[in-house]
Structures are given as structure tokens and as C-alpha cells.
Amino acid sequence: MRPLSALQLLLWHGALWTVREATPLGPARNLPETFLLKCLEQVRKIQADVVAMQERLCATHKLCHPEELVLLRHSLGIPQVPLGSCSSQALQLTGCLGQLHGGLFLYQGLLQALAGISPELGPTLDMLQLDITDFATNIWQQMEDLGMAPGVQATQGTVPTFTSAFQRRAGGVLVASNLQSFLQLALRVLRHLAEP
């Protein structure tokens, strides 16, 4: 195992500290504490995997700043995940869990599209996909337990095709950046739901 980077430790410490200080977002307090704690742990693990991916893309391919690749985001067709049901103003538990689940499936597809990005990133991508699958499965199981699950699980939707090594690498930077934003919102929602 490699030692945790300072950024990973900061993310982990920040997540633990703010869980205690979060303010409730809305009603919907019928989620078991064990589910919420497991989700918080899964989000932190995925965040650490994403940080590792970003660090490797930066060190190996000198792709360190997603804002430099903004023009490529549209041309590559990398979608954003809608999380309107998870906003603090309109939190809807069923819709939010469904959007989180659907978003995780989308990111799983995006990571699959990045296959072959580079030999150095292969194990990190594999770990990310497994962790995202575990998180999505956990959310789906909880939705089923609460009788909230729709009849059919979410699908990945349209996933871009990266035709060159540069597109895969640039796509990796953009997907990692989007995934970090998605996870930050998921973490915020889960912290608020964990409040008594």
C-alpha cells in the first residue's frame, strides 16, 4: 500500500469533521445510520481513487488542469450528471437517491470508455469502477429495502467514444473533475441526511 497523500488526508479529515456540523436539508430522515455511514465511507474511498487518478494523469501526461480542457468537454461529449432532486432547496429522497444511482452508472460507463488510457492508470481505473459499482449497488439495495426502487435500474446512457490516446487522457482529466464535483455534492447530501 502507498502512503496517503496530504490531499487525501485533508479530504478524509474534512469529511469527518463536517459530518458533525452539517445542517439538515429537509425532511426524509428514514435512512438507516448504517447505510449512511457506509455511503460516506464509499464516497471517501472513491474520492481517494479519483485523486490518485488525477495525480497520475498530471505526473505522467502533464494534464493537470481541467479548466484548460473546457473546450474539449463539449466536443468529446462528456455529460454532466443532473442532481436537481438533491439540492438543499428541493431535496426529494427518492429522486435524489435515484439521481445518485443513475450518476454512478453514468460514471461507470465513462470510466469504461477510458479503458486503455495508459498502463499506469489501468489498476486505478479498475479500482474506481469496482468502488463505484459497490456504491451504486448499496444505494439500489437501500432503495429496494425502502420500497423506493423503480422497476428498472438506471442505464449508463450515452457514453462518448474516445478515438485517440490524447482524447482518452483529456477525457480522463475531465471525467475525474466531473466525478469529484458529483462526489462532493453526494457527500454533502449524505452528511445532511446523517444528521439526527
Write the layout of secondary structure elements.
Layout: H1 6-21, H2 33-61, H3 70-76, H4 93-113, H5 122-145, H6 165-194
Helix pairs in contact: 1-2, 1-6, 2-5, 2-6, 3-6, 4-5, 4-6
Structural account:
With 196 residues, the protein is mainly α. 65% of the residues lie in helices and 0% in strands. The protein has helices at residues 6-21, 33-61, 70-76, 93-113, 122-145, 165-194. The chain starts with 5 loop residues before the first helix and ends with a helix. 35% of the residues are buried.
Indicate the radius of gyration in whole angstroms. 17 Å
Largest sheet: none
- String of helices and strands: HHHHHH
In percent, how much strand structure appears in the residues?
A: under 5%
Number of helices: 6
Mean pLDDT across the residues is 80
Helix content: 55-70%
Overall morphology: elongated
* First and last CA, distance: 36 Å
Structural class: mainly alpha
Beta strands, count: 0
Stretches where pLDDT falls below 50 for ≥5 residues?
4-28
